[in-house]
Design a protein that fits this description.
Helix content is 70%, strand content 5%. By secondary structure, it is mostly helical. The strands form 4 sheets. It has a two-stranded antiparallel ribbon. Helix 8 packs antiparallel against helix 9 and helix 9 packs antiparallel against helix 12. The chain binds protoporphyrin IX containing FE.
């Protein structure tokens, strides 16, 4: 391998590791805040147990994500000094502000972790909100830098010299809103299915360590958020594709494997685009659909530029057609899973009601039966779909699949930008270092990343084995006794109020 290939491979691996570790750190605070809120409001230990376990995951992944995130700019300076010099002059503003978002997260994570026994229960819950906002702000700010690489505005570059630098124009470049929107929505989508998959996997492996109401409520929340964000992913993804048609038409042609410029352009699903023959081997073509998707329902004859309109040496690797299809395919599956869950539950209950009207009625109309709207009289029953082994396996697989979709999305965006580092301004080759130690650095960093990933896996396994959901539930029960005491003043029970929330 030549040094440039080592440099590309190292950057790709470093980003993939960072994204995998950072995504749960961005999405989990939202789930923690919701579960904690519902738990406090209903004095429901199941929701509190979920919030507690997700907090443990967050507390492990946040610092590890921060370590890999801190390594990245250093690595980029070493490997791509020409690019990073331009970033320093033009694109550094969001990175700078992101430092503040990170501090807010770090401070409030400390308060949230250690304030449990010391703060008023609602003040304690409120300390989770800056974590939600801080993590979303971090994701937004860093993604604006990537958006700037796709549509680099806010400066002139001539003979390697930057002039007329405008950091605000760079930050709010034409791709900013569409890319940050897609990234944020798909981050919550990934974490939603990570949670659903994790719960399903735990209950398949150790059914007695996952209390059934906790499983039911956790899966219900994950699938509601998962469904909303899967629909959001499709919507923002559609806008991304339309934006590509205007701003990066060559990338669009590559991800859609369109060789010839044409109206009524077909949408090709799957297949292998062969650059030599200019044909897609084995794909399924849907006539006019690509034109319709770009120009709207009345735009079937809209012209889409094909690869042959551009010089061959500027084509990105055509594997982006497959990474794109993989992302979209998984996105559609993730949209279908919640629908399958709700429809399956509904149909089974309807059948049960028809067969045994009296006994089935209570299950069918139970307020917490489907969408995770809890009641304190939670029973041990599971929604019918969660009783089915095949559905539990499907849920368990959905977590890793969501991560695959996320990585495929980044591969599509980043490989699709090749050969440019800053689109149509600076090539990857021109941005690369002249230093000759890149292969050695590659292997040293591989060892470093293996250690980081190993430590993350080890910590997660140990902590979650010691604090499984059954143990979390016991602890949550104790917390709620304190909540009752704090909110009623003296610890004296109000008439009709349970001292400890009813355990199923
Ligand atoms: C369901 C339909 C989806 C569509 C139509 C879609 C569309 C797109 C498009 C066109 C891009 C390239 C944008 C660019 O290069 O500027 C992209 C990138 C990306 N996609 Fe998707 N996507 C979908 C689903 C998903 C899912 C399910 C995930 C993850 C769970 C995901 C994660 C990403 C990521 C992380 C990127 C890179 C960042 C970006 O450029 O926005 N996408 N998507």
């Amino acid at each position: 391998m030549d040094p440039l290939t080592y440099g590309r491979a190292l950057t790709g691996i470093a980003l993939a590791v960072h994204i995998t570790l950072a995504v749960p750190g961005i999405g989990l605070p939202l789930f923690i805040a919701i579960a904690h809120f519902v738990g406090l409001r209903r004095r429901d230990p199941h929701w509190m147990a979920l919030a507690d376990q997700w907090t443990r995951l967050f507390a492990i992944l946040f610092p590890i994500g921060a370590v890999t995130g801190t390594l990245l700019p250093v690595l980029l300076v070493v490997l791509w000094p020409v690019f990073m010099q331009i970033v320093g002059e033009v694109g550094v503003l969001p990175m700078f502000v992101e430092g503040f978002a990170f501090f807010i997260e770090a401070i409030f994570l400390g308060l949230y972790l250690y304030g449990r026994e010391k703060l008023h229960p609602w003040v304690h819950w409120a300390t989770s909100l800056p974590l939600v906002l801080g993590s979303a702000a971090s994701a937004f700010l860093i993604t604006t830098v990537n958006a700037w690489m796709q549509t680099p505005t806010g400066f002139h570059l001539e003979d390697g010299k930057v002039s007329a630098a405008d950091p605000m124009a760079a930050m709010f470049n034409p791709s900013t809103w569409v890319e940050t929107g897609h990234v944020l929505v798909t981050t919550y989508l990934t974490v939603a299915f990570f949670i659903a998959g994790w719960l399903a996997w735990q209950s398949l492996r150790h059914p007695n360590r996952v209390p059934r109401p906790v499983l039911r409520k956790g899966v219900a929340l994950a699938l509601v958020v998962g469904f909303i964000s899967a629909a959001g992913a499709a919507g923002t993804g559609h806008l991304s594709a339309q934006s590509l048609a205007v701003r990066q038409p060559l990338k669009l042609a590559a991800i859609e494997a369109l060789f010839d410029t044409e109206g009524n352009a077909p949408l090709t699903i799957g297949g292998w685009p062969d650059p030599e023959t200019g044909r897609v081997i084995g794909g399924i073509e849907i006539p006019s659909l690509l034109s319709i998707m770009v120009y709207g329902p009345g735009g079937a004859d809209g012209v889409i530029k094909g690869l042959r309109d551009f010089p061959r040496e500027l084509w990105p690797p055509l594997i982006v057609h497959l990474t794109f299809d993989l992302m979209v395919g998984i996105g559609i599956l993730l949209l279908v899973i919640p629908l399958l869950y709700w429809a399956g539950n509904w149909l089974t209950r309807r059948r049960q009601t028809a067969q045994a009207p009296r006994t089935a009625t209570s299950a069918a109309t139970s307020p917490d039966a489907n969408l995770g709207v809890a009641s304190m009289s939670s029973s041990d029953h599971l929604p019918p779909m969660l009783e089915k082994g095949w559905f539990q396996w499907l849920l368990a697989a959905s977590g890793p699949l969501a991560f695959v979709a996320m990585q495929s999305g980044w591969l599509t965006t980043e490989l699709g930008r090749q050969p440019w580092m800053l689109y149509e301004k600076l090539t990857v080759a021109a941005a690369f270092t002249t230093a000759d130690y890149v292969p050695a650095l590659f292997w040293a960093m591989m060892v470093g990343y293996a250690i980081i990933v190993g430590v993350a896996v080890l910590l997660l396994r140990r902590v979650l084995a010691r604090h499984d959901l059954a143990a979390e539930l016991e602890r949550a029960g104790r917390t709620l006794v304190r909540v009752v005491e704090a909110t009623t003043g003296s610890g004296a029970r109000q008439p009709g109020q349970p001292a400890v929330p009813t355990q199923p």
